[in-house]
Specification:
eight-stranded mixed beta barrel; Sortase; about 25% helix; about 260 residues; hydrolase activity; membrane; hydrolase; Sortase, Chain: A; transmembrane helix; single chain; 8 strands
Length: about 260
């Protein structure tokens, strides 16, 4: 009996399924699959979810800075004394030329981009320099060093991402002729009007000339140039939007914004 039971026990043990041995190839395969999933999740975050969050943050920062500038203006500007507007018919309002700002340092925020075509809440901060590390990624829109400043005769040239990091220039190709491109500073609002788009190679730096694409031509007009990557998610070319300066609206105690910031149809 004992021998029979022992034999049955040995037989039972002999029928057990052998354990699956883990191979090096299998481990590497699992690691690669896990890494692929992580990379995919990162791409989804960076291109979609993160963009929504970064974009909202940029607009909130721009709006907050605009409110801060207005509050500072109201604190520093005394209320004008009441006058009788009808006593001197010869008095006419004087239109001052737009103030020209000093060129900002690398990473120094100096303005806010407002484009009604991109939405009423579009208010992206602008800073000096066009490096990703100091300006484009953490702030939004960068000013090409050496190009002109808002309202100044010549080329006020800017760069920003078209994808990722809030993608400030994502809709650059949606601009219509005549659309307002407004640069808000502590002094007031510089309004440009969009004129045309152009696609160029990355090494065609002539777009940054005082008169874009015109060598050795002195600038008599104030231009704005917006540059970004093209096509989407690639760096094969650059998409360039050009605009022409229209007017400057100084900041006032009433906080009234220029008519150019009204929503577009």
């Amino acid at each position: 009996m004992d021998d029979a039971l022992s034999g049955q026990g040995r037989a039972a043990r002999g029928t057990r399924t052998p354990r699956r041995r883990t191979s090096v190839v299998g481990v590497i395969g699992e690691v690669l699959i896990t890494a692929g999933v992580i990379v995919l999740l990162y791409v989804v975050w960076q291109l979609w979810v993160g963009d929504l969050i970064y974009g909202a943050e940029r607009n909130a920062e721009g709006t907050e800075l605009s409110q801060e500038w207005q509050a500072q203006y109201e604190e520093q500007t005394p209320e004008p004394a009441p006058t009788d507007a009808g006593t001197d018919p010869e008095v006419v309002p004087v239109t001052a030329p737009p103030p020209v700002l000093a060129e900002p340092a690398d990473g120094q925020t100096f303005a806010i981009m407002r484009i009604p075509r991109f939405g009423a809440d579009y208010a992206v901060p602008m800073a000096g320099g066009v490096t990703r590390a100091r300006t484009l990624d953490p702030i939004g829109i960068g000013h090409y060093p050496g190009t002109k400043m808002p309202g100044e005769a010549g080329n006020f040239a800017l760069a920003a991402h078209r994808t990722t990091w809030g993608k400030p220039f994502n809709r650059i190709a949606d601009l219509h002729v005549g659309d307002a491109i407004v640069v808000e500073t502590q002094e007031g609002w510089y309004t440009y009007r969009f004129r045309t788009l152009q696609y160029v190679k990355p090494n065609e730096v002539e777009v940054l000339l005082p008169v874009p694409q015109a060598m050795d031509v002195p600038a008599g007009t104030a231009y704005i140039t917006l540059t970004s990557c093209s096509p989407m998610y690639a760096m094969t070319e650059r998409i360039v939007a050009y605009g022409v300066f229209e007017s400057f609206t100084p900041r006032s105690a009433s906080g009234e914004e220029p008519a150019s910031l009204q929503a577009v149809a």
